[in-house]
Fold this sequence. Notes:
The structure holds two protein chains of two kinds. Chain A is built from no helices and eleven strands. By secondary structure, chain A is mainly β. In chain A, strands 2, 4, 5, 6, 9, 10 and 11 form a seven-stranded mixed sheet that branches. In chain A, strands 1-3-8-7 form a four-stranded antiparallel sheet, with no helix packed on it. Helix content of chain B is 0%, strand content 58%. In chain B, the strands form two sheets. In chain B, strands 2, 4, 5, 9, 10 and 11 form a six-stranded mixed sheet that branches. Chain B has a five-stranded antiparallel sheet with strand order 1-3-8-7-6, with no helix packed on it. In chain B, a hairpin with a 4-residue loop joins strand 7 and strand 8. The radius of gyration of chain B is 13 Å and the shape is globular. In chain B, 33% of the residues are buried. Chain A binds chain B through residues 4, 6, 31, 40-43, 45, 48, 90, 94, 96-107, 109, and chain B through 31-32, 34, 36, 41-46, 49, 51, 89, 93-100, 102-105.
Amino acid sequence: DAMVIQNPRYQVTQFGKPVTLSCSQTLNHNVMYWYQQKSSQAPKLLFHYYDKDFNNEADTPDNFQSRRPNTSFCFLDIRSPGLGDAAMYLCATSRDLKGETQYFGPGTRLLVL
Amino acid sequence: GENVEQHPSTLSVQEGDSAVIKCTYSDSASNYFPWYKQELGKGPQLIIDIRSNVGEKKDQRIAVTLNKTAKHFSLHITETQPEDSAVYFCAAIRNTGNQFYFGTGTSLTVIP
């Protein structure tokens, strides 16, 4: 089945220690997104890639970076995690921009100690 | 930008009853409205969507209605089952971009 895969499902890191979350997709979609979701809140868009073009949301902290080495993979790097960065991180894909359905992965729950 | 309001924030129904969740939006240029179901510890899953050229769409026990004039759309779940218990998010999207404006979510509990 075509799908969006996120690894790991749970990640524990220490305050200030860089961490990388991974996402892969078998849908061959052009667009990949990273969202942050805190408890009882809607997902909040951090950034997205349209092919290799990176688009950062205006209020995404500099502490968050992303890489997309190829169509299938996208990474979220948190350079110096703070306690406030503990959240569920969701990867999503869409075939294209302009009113397309987004398909979400299962998420990675990040815990910062 | 778009503003999506979702009500109620929590909803409890008896098994077999119907559940209705409502969303309103502010941007008349929005023309795509998906609904997502998110179970605890999982990612949101698309359950139904509607585009502005139709007023209603149904898929088995789930239906969505859209009133473009009033700028509101609703999710209807009939014959609810315990496995329908989850958080439901609505969203509104313009055809000129792919910024998802999510509602604040509704936590649905179906009581056996």
